[in-house]
Amino acid sequence: MATAALFERRGFMSRPSATTGWWSWVTTVDHKKIGILYGFTAFIFFLIGGIEALAIRAQLAGPDGTILDADTYNQLFTMHGITMIFLVVMPMGVGLMNYFIPLMIGARDVAFPRLNAFSYWVFALGGLFLYSSFVLGGAPSGGWFGYAPLNRELPNYGMTFYSLGLQMLGVASLAGAVNFIITILNMRAPGMTLMRMPVFIWMSLVTSFLLLFAMPIIAVALFQLMFDRAYGANFFNPAEGGDPILWQHLFWLFGHPEVYIMILPAMGIVSEVLPTFARKPIFGYAAIVFAGIAIGFMGWGVWAHHMFTTGLGPVANAAFALSTMFIAVPTGIKIFNWIGTLWGGSIEFKPPLMFSLGFVSMFIIGGLSGVTHSIVPHDAQQQDTYYIVAHFHYVLFGGAIFGLFSGIYYWWPKIFGRYLSNGLGHLHFWLMLIGFNLTFGPFHILGLQGMPRRISVYPDEMGWNFWNLISTIGSGVIAASVLVFILNAVRTRTKGEEAGADPWDGRTLEWSVPSPPPAYNFAEEPVVRHRDDFWHTKYIEVPEKSPRRVLAGGANGHDEHSEHGHIHLPSPSYFPAMAATGLPVMGYGVIYNDTGASWPLIVSGILIIMLSLFGWVLEPSVHEE
Amino acid sequence: MRLLQAPKRRAGVGALALLLTLLLSACAENAPQDVLDPAGPVAREADQLWDITFGIAVVVFVLVEAALVFTVLKFRRRPGREAAQFHGNTRVEVLLTVIPALILAGIAVPTVSSIFSLAAEPPGALQVKLIGHRFWWEYQYTGAGVVTANELHIPTGRPVYINLEGALTDRVTGEAAVNHSYWIPRLAGTQDIIPGRNTYMTIEADEPGTYLGQCKEFCGLGHAYMRQRVIAHRPAEFETWLQDQGEAPPAPTGLAAEGEQLFTSGQFPGGPACVSCHAAESTELTAPNTGPNLTHFAGRQTFAAGVFENNEENLSAWLADPAAVKPGATMPDLGLTQEQIDALIAYLETRE
Question: What's the CA gap between A338 and B219, in Å, rounded?
Answer without folding.
Answer: 42
